[in-house]
Amino acid sequence: MTDPVDEELIPLTPLSRKQRRVLGVLVEKAFTVPDQYPLTLKATTTACNQKNNREPVTNYSEDDVAESLEQLQALGFVGCLHTESGRTERYRHYLRMRTKLNGAQIAILTELLLRGKQQLGELRTRASRMVQVNTQEDLRRELQSLMDAGLIRSNGPLERRGIEVDHSLYADGEKHEPLSAWSGNDSSDVDDETESVPIPSPVRSNSATPTHQQPQSPSRDQWDRMDASIRELKGELETIRADFRELQTRFDDLQRQLGG
Questions:
Q1: How far is the CA of 27 from the CAs of 34, 35, 212, in angstroms?
Q2: Under CATH, to which class is 103-172+223-254 assigned?
Q3: Any idea what DSSP says for residue 205?
Q4: Domain limits of the chain?
Q5: Which partner from 168, 185, 199, 204 sits 20 to 30 angstroms from 5, CA to CA?
Q6: Topology given in CATH for the domain delimited by 17-98
Q7: In terms of C-beta density within 10 A (0-12 exposed, 13-18 middle, 19 or more buried), how is residue 228 classed?
């Protein structure tokens, strides 16, 4: 295969919705299925339209994807490789060569390109499919670098529970789902992975006569934290299911190959 590319660094600029999906797919598959990478046009199209780990789910044609690949080639983020037979063109990304981003940062940005805004817990779980991000602190450090580079945005301080982050590569004038409003009332600096939701202690009466005091209701802040924890668990469960479906598909393909 030929791979005529120089290693001149180029800035990541706003991309169209299709360009972001195609670029994200190439990066994702490079990490998760290296034996099938670089991708053919057909494989890239299938990966763009898959139902798991995509938001929104799309129905792009091969012509749509081919056009985006050509545009990304012109920008310098994608290259076209030719096999020795010359019959099959395959495509690869150049984010590692053409940007200063490390592997973890590329994986995090890729998840945001493929799914849009996310909370930190679910983002760490999903990005770890590609590059292991061991702790929330590791994630925050990489997010801060991406934020300093102008590639992501958040709706509040990264240290706060329930914060959402999203990429900043939307094209000018493009409509997209905004980050949720952040109240700024959470004064806790405890890590998301260890903080527990406070449970009101029962009130004991000093009187010998039993009392039936109304239980104390959780505060709005406590409800927000519980909701964030539930969403985080749902995101992790969804990722596990997606990984299982992908493994099942690869297993079925292997069975068909062995059977043939």
A1: 10, 13, 60
A2: mainly alpha
A3: P
A4: 17-98, 103-172+223-254
A5: 168
A6: Arc Repressor Mutant, subunit A (1.10.10)
A7: buried
How many other CB atoms are found less than 10 A from the CB of residue 129?
Answer: 18
Fill in the DSSP letter of residue 202. P
Number of residues in the chain: 260
Contact, 52 vs 242, CB < 8 A?
yes
Helix-strand-coil percent breakdown of the chain, rounded to 5?
45, 10, 45
Measured in degrees and rounded to the nearest 5, phi and psi for residue 37 equal -110, 145
Rounded Cα distance between 39 and 131, Å, is 20
Q: Are strands 164-167 and 39-40 parallel, antiparallel or unpaired?
A: unpaired
Q: What is the C-alpha to C-alpha distance for residues 2 and 16, in angstroms, rounded to an integer?
A: 28
Predicted confidence at residue 230, as pLDDT, reads 72
Alpha helices in 90-134 (DSSP H): 95-98, 103-115, 120-127
Tokens linked to 208: 């010998």
DSSP structure class, residue 204: P
Task: Summarize pLDDT for 48-63 with one digit per residue, the tens.
Answer: 999 999 999 999 999 9
Q: Convert the pLDDT of each residue in 187-217 to its tens digit.
A: 333 344 433 333 344 444 444 444 455 556 6
Question: Same CATH fold, 103-172+223-254 and 17-98?
Answer: yes
In this structure, the strands spanning 118-119 and 152-154 are unpaired
Q: How far apart are CA 15 and CA 71, in angstroms?
A: 10
